[in-house]
């Protein structure tokens, strides 16, 4: 029940953001290039407190996501190199590589935030990488799901496999179309 309520709340929040942004920034044809631009979408709802409301939301999001991302990357790297891992591990010589990776990720985040390109550009690039990488990951998942050994005799077959591959094809075509659209816009901007 909690998961379903969380999904419903997340979707309602997503649609509220989408509608508010379209009604404010989209109606004026303004592009979002900075966090201040994004905060302008809240002006009709929050008035002069829009910037404060956006800043609090952004800070809360960062406080939740940054440690999770740093820890996740550290776990992946530790798994790849067979290091002792886990935030519950005591700080000792064997766990330094794991904790060093966590600290390195946090430091890289600080450096990028202070000296890197616009955070909106990072969001755009993350979306681009996710969009282009999704068909590849989906294809690998379908291949694994169809392997009897991996699935221990419960491999995906029949219409489910067909739907899975159609999804991969659709996502692949959408990614290629988006990449073409983006390349056209970049080429036009460079002229």
TrEMBL record:
Membrane topology: Multi-pass membrane protein
Keyword Transmembrane: yes
GO cellular component, one term: membrane
Record's keyword annotation contains Transmembrane helix: yes
Transmembrane segments: 6-27, 39-60, 66-84, 96-115, 121-144, 156-181
Subcellular locations according to the entry: Membrane
Protein name: Divalent metal cation transporter
The organism of origin for this protein: Thermorudis sp
